[in-house]
């Protein structure tokens, strides 16, 4: 196949970049011209790009249709110093922004730490209050229990002179010793003569003590340590004594009639 005589000519290389460069230079020239970039002027010596930077930073002022340097001539002639000033301004601004953000963050951290510390202290105080309340209640319960025991001990230590209750208890124990209820009448007469059925009855001459008038009184301790105050302990000892020595209350009463003691 033959080549077409109408094939498009090759596109020139670098045309677009050259056009862009020309446009940029034209824009910079226009800015420099507005600043009075005449041949031999400070602006002309700086170059178009540096002049634009200097003008934007206020290092050159327009006066009387021309450019007037706001700083000494040698400083304006140093392009690197002008551009460095522009770059330094941006860096300083960024540094200030970063520092401010850091301070805000640090303040947030301090606030959070303070709130956490306050919450922990409140929790500690609440726990301490609960512990104190529990301890107070436990102490109240302990004191109440001790008071109850003290009252019981006091009541147990008090002699019980209750002839009716003592007689009823003695009647309920006759069968345990093998006696019928008709023995109760003899027992009632015997111990009425001895003590009147009083737990604390004491013979001022001999020292015999209690309902059964045990002599010595400490003999009744073989039944119970509360022999001084408990009529049940005294009666148990007395019935056992009668059973062992006389066999029955009626026999003990007969001996008492004859000897005035048993």
> What is the makeup of the main sheet?
2 strands, antiparallel
Tell me how many strands there are. Answer: 2
- Computed Rg: 63 Å
Order of strands across the main sheet: 1-2
Task: Please state the average pLDDT score.
Answer: 78
The SS-based structural class is mainly alpha
SSE pattern, N- to C-terminal: HHHEEHHHHHH
Low-confidence stretches: 1-10, 14-18, 59-77
Distance between the termini: 165 Å
Report strand %: under 5%
General form: rod-shaped
Q: Given the structure, what is the number of helices? A: 9
List the helices and strands and how they pair.
Elements: H1 15-34, H2 42-46, H3 48-57, E1 60-63, E2 66-69, H4 73-77, H5 79-157, H6 163-173, H7 183-194, H8 231-245, H9 249-259
Helix pairs in contact: 1-3, 3-5, 6-8, 7-9
Give an account of the 3D structure.
This protein has 262 residues and is mostly helical. Among the domains are: 18-77, no CATH class; 163-259, no CATH class. 64% of the residues lie in helices and 3% in strands. The protein contains nine helices and two strands. It has helices at residues 15-34, 42-46, 48-57, 73-77, 79-157, 163-173, 183-194, 231-245, 249-259; strands at 60-63, 66-69. It has a two-stranded antiparallel sheet. The radius of gyration is 63 Å and the shape is rod-shaped.
Short description:
With 262 residues, the protein is mostly helical. 64% of the residues lie in helices and 3% in strands.
């Amino acid at each position: 196949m033959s080549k077409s005589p109408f094939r498009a000519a090759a596109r020139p290389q670098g045309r677009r970049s050259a056009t862009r460069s020309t446009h940029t230079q034209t824009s910079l020239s226009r800015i420099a011209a507005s600043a009075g970039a005449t041949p031999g002027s400070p602006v002309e010596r700086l170059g178009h790009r540096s002049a634009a930077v200097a003008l934007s930073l206020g290092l050159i002022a327009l006066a009387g249709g021309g450019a007037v340097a706001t700083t000494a001539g040698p400083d304006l002639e140093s392009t690197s110093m002008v551009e460095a000033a522009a770059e330094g301004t941006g860096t300083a601004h960024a540094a200030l922004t970063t520092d401010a953000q850091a301070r805000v963050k640090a303040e947030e951290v301090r606030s959070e730490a303070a709130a956490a510390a306050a919450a922990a202290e409140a929790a500690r105080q609440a726990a301490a209050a609960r512990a104190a309340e529990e301890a107070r209640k436990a102490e109240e319960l302990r004191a109440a229990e001790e008071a109850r025991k003290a009252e019981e001990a006091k009541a147990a230590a008090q002699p019980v002179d209750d002839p009716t209750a003592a007689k009823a208890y003695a009647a309920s124990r006759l069968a345990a010793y093998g006696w019928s209820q008709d023995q109760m009448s003899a027992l009632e007469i015997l111990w009425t003569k001895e003590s009147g059925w009083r737990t604390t009855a004491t013979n001022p001459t001999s020292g015999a003590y209690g309902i059964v008038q045990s002599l010595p009184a400490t003999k009744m301790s073989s039944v119970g340590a509360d022999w001084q105050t408990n009529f049940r302990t005294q009666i148990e000892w007395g019935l056992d004594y009668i059973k062992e020595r006389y066999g029955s209350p009626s026999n003990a009463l007969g001996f008492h009639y004859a000897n005035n003691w048993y």
